[in-house]
Amino acid sequence: MKKRRCRMLAVDLDGTVLTSHGELTPRTRRALARCRARGVEVVLCTARPPRSATPHWRRMKLTTPLIAYDGAMVVEPSTGEVLLNRTMPGILARKVLQEARRVHPEMVITFEIQDKWWTDELGASIITRTAKEGFKPDVVCDLDACVTRPVTKILISRSVETLDALERRLRRKLGKRLSVVRVEDYLLEMAAAGVSKAAGLKLVARRYGIKPSEVVAIGDGMNDIAMLKWAALGIAMGHAPDAVKRAADVVTASNDEEGVAKAIQTYVLRGT
């Protein structure tokens, strides 16, 4: 960060702040609290929807806007105010459905619409069998027929080989209209073109009068790469894929080794 004081710390949630068991350790909690005490604005940037991320935002005792859906939505959890909501037209979402089913007729497809989880009968049956207790879709319907409104995010799951083929197809046919991210081997996510955690973080930093040169970002996933590159100092978690590590400036320990707490001590607090 070239001797410039860190004024904002952006952190991913799953695989970064949280352990593999979904826990926020006392050490990480204390490190985040020390950042806030030093005047560093801590911003949570996650692929999760607001309804799922907000409890963690509260647990971390944050006051900054929440960047959800990989930057498609920015909200003020304390008031419910939506600062940004980037969506794709319903007609484009249905086009993604058509392309997905051309690759495989039984893709598991879910939509996120206005912080609600929509899926079809196939998706609901699989999700119900595999999801955590109490975690279920809000709306189950024929997506081709019922999705007419703007869509925030599309998530598609199937085998690695099937998603490889779908990703290539979507990038070739709809790449200029969609943001396509392979979050995991078995999960492909689509949002409106231009959506990224970096874009959401840029908006939040501007609200606080903070420059990119004053921002540190920490993440572990492919959807964190743009954010790591945008910040003055991008920090990859130790267990991150090689592509994420290459995009970062430095690498810290893994999430199960409290890598966020270690990175804060080394790269954030020493410069404040």
Present the secondary structure layout.
Layout: E1 8-11, H1 13-17, H2 26-37, E2 41-44, H3 50-59, E3 66-68, E4 73-76, E5 81-85, H4 90-103, E6 108-113, E7 116-119, H5 121-130, E8 139-140, H6 143-146, E9 153-157, H7 160-174, E10 178-184, E11 187-192, H8 197-207, E12 215-219, H9 225-230, E13 233-236, H10 242-247, E14 250-251, H11 259-268
Helix pairs in contact: 2-11, 4-7
Could you explain the architecture of this structure?
The protein folds into two domains: 155 residues, Rossmann fold, CATH 3.40.50; 103 residues, Hypothetical Protein, Haloacid Dehalogenase-like Hydrolase, Chain: A, domain 2 (2-Layer Sandwich), CATH 3.30.1240. The protein contains eleven helices and 14 strands. It has a six-stranded mixed β-sheet. Strands 2-1-12-13-14 form a five-stranded parallel β-sheet, sandwiched between helices. The protein is globular.
